[in-house]
Design brief:
CATH class: Alpha Beta
Shape: globular
Structural class: alpha/beta
CATH architecture: 3-Layer(aba) Sandwich
Largest sheet: 5 strands, mixed
Number of domains: 1
CATH topology: Rossmann fold
Number of strands: 5
Number of helices: 5
Distance between the termini: 7 Å
Helix content: 25-40%
CATH superfamily: Phosphoglycerate mutase-like
Amino acid sequence: MKLWLVRHALPVVAEGVCYGASDVPADDQATREAAQRLAAGLPPGLAVSSSPLARCLQLADALQGLRSDLAYRSDARLSEMNFGAWEQQRWDAIAPAEFERWTADFAHHACGGGESVAQLMARAAAALAEARHRGADSLWITHAGVIRAVSLLAAGVTLPRNAADWPREGLGFGQAACIQLV
């Protein structure tokens, strides 16, 4: 089975702001352009799921408008990591000691009192298990954190040992990647 992973288009948020689970919209033009690229390149009849956050739903709606065969369902497990009190704060305004606490216990520390990487990984693993069970090629419209979690899970890593194990490279806004799942 193949799983296409798509990251939402450029969000409308100030650069350098932590917006994880915050429901910020995406740029309309960037969303239209991403939907057009995707519509031209995706195979027919994919099972489509989207994060319920606005920036993903915008892309799911635009894509469905261009390709009626790509009707989607919303799946909260595809939401971005919740950074708690860090949400809507500038990354450079978060105390270095807070980052140190996170990196010291990267998998289990709940950033800003929100969600831990382990919780994000568990959500992504549950959605991935369901997709594998269905066995149909699928498309997820989601976020960088979920995409990175899925890349680890697809490689057999259920939980990163430390921050250095977390994938550094990810998809750009509005970009897609396809992975083969066994």
